[in-house]
Predict the structure.
Amino acid sequence: MPKRKKRDRRVRYAFLAIVLCLAAGGAGAAVYLTSKASSANFSAQIYGAVSPRLNVIDVDFLRDNNLKFTQDKKTNFVRSLSALGQPIPLSKGNLVSDLAVSNQFLKDYARFFGVGDSKQLILHSSKKDELGLSHIKYQQKIGGVPVFGAQMLVHVKEDLSVNSAAGKLLANVSINTNPKITGRAAGDAVKRSWQKSDKAPKVSAGKLYIFNKNLLDARFENKNHLTWEIKAVDADSGFSETYYIDATSGAILQKISNVKQISRRIFNCGNNRNRTTCRNMLGAAASRAQNDRAEGWAAAGVAEVDNVYQMMNQAHNYFQNTFGIDGANGRDGIGDNTDGHPRTSTDVYADWLIPASWGFNCPNSFFFENKLMFCNNTVNLPVVGHEYMHGVAHFNGPPLTYAYESGAIEEANADIFGQALENAVTGSSSWRIGPTGGNLWRNIVNPASLNDPDRFYSNNFYCGDNDEGGVHNNSNVISHAAYLLATGGSFNGCSIDSIGQNRMERIFYRALTVYLTASSDFNDLYDALDNACGDLYSDAICAQVRRALQAAEIDQPGRCSGTAAAPKPTCFPPYILSVSANAGHYRANQSITLRFKFSKPVRTAGAVDVFAVLNGRTAEKICSLDLSSRADDVSCSFKVNDGDSGRLRVDRIEWDVKRPILDADSSELTDMVPAEQFPKGDVIIDTAKPTGSVTINSGAKTTASHIVELALSSNDDKAGLLYRVSNNGVSYSRWDDFAATTSWNLYNADAGGGVFPTTNSGYPRTVYVQFKDQAGNVSDTYSANITFSRLTILIEEPAQLAVPTSSQPNGANLLLNIPPSALTIPGVNVTVTQTSAVVLPQISTTTVNLNPAISSSLIDVVSVPDFTISVKQGGLTTYLSGAINYWGKGAKCEGPRTYDAVVANWGDGASAKPARKDKTFYASHTYAKTFGSYKILVKVYNSCGGSASKSLYVKPQI
Ligand SMILES: [Zn+2]
């Protein structure tokens, strides 16, 4: 399997790089710089002697060149260095290979790491990864002797720029590299100290190293030793240790164990519920009879026992090789020193039977904090890997709370690493988990096939309390996303490229061990995985990670939250959520702002043209969206033209396909939203000014009150229509909502009303009105006139005439006919309460019956047309004038009648006998008292001594 071997080597190498970077980052203080320098200024200082500590000038140099770096807390030397946005500047350009670039970097920067002479850094290895990044490792050597643990990594991008570098080097080394003792003598020293067995170990030939324990751990003394590295292997057990022997004194400075061996104890339960029957192995003799199997024992001959024995080793090796942990607990095993399970042991109960009291049955399998248990037929790689991962998570994770979402994450990790073990051993994953030959427990490829959820809003997502909150169902959302990352595929409208199973495993492992907390939920896991990926891989890889997790919807609140899912998962290519303009009416030269909301921040290099339909015309370009910076909410504005009218509808946006609209993960906007989503709210373009009219007091010519009623009309849309009023055409009231009628003060001073008059004269007034529509179009000015006077003459209906008596002329009648037109006097307001002619009842109609011989033809008629009243300034002069028509005859007073007299009683004590001539009379009277109410009585006497009278009131008023 050469292919697998290659992959493993790469993985191991990458892990080493990570550890180095972490060590560098962990020991130093991060300094983030924002100052930017256009180019590096390499002055002579850079090649100067290395100072014991990094000085201020050096730090300034890094800052000036916009570099991010961390410094060793003790020595101040740089431990890691990376570019911020631009490549790390080098003093020499035009370098043709990654190695040349890397070497130049060392010439320019090694001194910042404590090594002034870059020749001390010898190329160790160079590897280019699948992303095009070259990882070039150097070993520090002094006089050809390597410094133990002193390595430098330089990462060069495909464009031959240095992306970052990290290293922990030994500064100011001054040491004699000639050993005083030989390598053989050092080996002998190891042999002498050997206590693992009675036999002397096999020792390697010595290899010289400069050894400084302070480089391993800052707690130790910073002292350089020339040492011999000797590897010793026990002849019988194969146990080995590596020694560092002082090449001057022969003293053992350090020994490092090479043992990472698993110690397995498989208890064969023989499909028995009684756990103690599986514990007899502790007495070795009994255990063999039970077909148990402990480390180094021959095969038990029981498939379950022997298989799990082997798989434990495979699981142990996978986690050690991949993540550098020595057993799930990091201490050789999965035990916790309780319940008879030592830390160094990996204890398994095989072919175990679940006690009846548990309420559920085999097949199943368990991790129990210090041991693993497998029912019959559950020993297969996905299941064994699953349970072993529970152990890894228990000892290396937060650990996660085993309930609800955090519990589902725990279960998902177990499934994912069950698949990882299967892949590590067989070269591929089945993405299925269940007992051998039995019904599947979970189908990670297609969770729905087992009614399990494949996304956070799946109807299969379980929101109840059973199974610790559905940890074995809901886990599928996560493990399915991991499957998509490992294999690639399309899901939930999102397309995910495979990032490879190994990368996926590293990302999940790092998220668990670095970023998750005990109560982390799916949303936390999203961030944790994104962060973990960002630590390990390029953004192109992490974009796929985000996409798979977004397809699984774990960046959203989820089904159990009661919050609705987003219309589309976040990974869906960007689309326009909505286009809106402020609804309303707009007129020429006003700007309408169109607001586009995208489903996520987008960016394009070019402008995006917006086409809209105005007034039913063909869609035309109206404005351009600026998408040069990432934004999800972008606006553009345009001005309404004179000719525009009607409704606005945004038709589409157009962009240059060579410069697509992209989101952060380079997903391309390809589709517009359906047209009916345009626009939100009506935009009416209205450039026509409203028309209208105004009438005062229904068209009256005069008014006694300065408060009048205005009747308004307009042809415009009344919604949003405003009006304002002025008394002089210059100063107007504030705009108010349109009303058909409104009360108005002719002397409103705020609207040009002027000074209220103090005399009774008539004052012509003009009222001006304007209208304004929603778009702000203002009408022409409309006006109406009226005359205001403080004086009003009120003519009331006459009192009832006296009933004629027998002495009166039979049927004598009096008709006062006062047409309103006759009362129109310039400057005076006259109110007639009975506006029609005052027609008196013919009073004789009931009384003439006193004499049945009298017919109606004998009725006397007196009419007084053209009765006029006039008022003069300073007093009231009443003029009475009219024509008397008189004829008829009476029973007692035979023959044609003549009238004898007309008598006028003016109501203020004065009376008059109006002069008469033929059938007309005429009289006038001036009242001494200006204001009051006066009853004017006109009485006509005939030649027979009868009379009839008619009265009216005259009431001058203010
Ligand atoms: Zn589990």
Remarks:
- The mean pLDDT is 76.
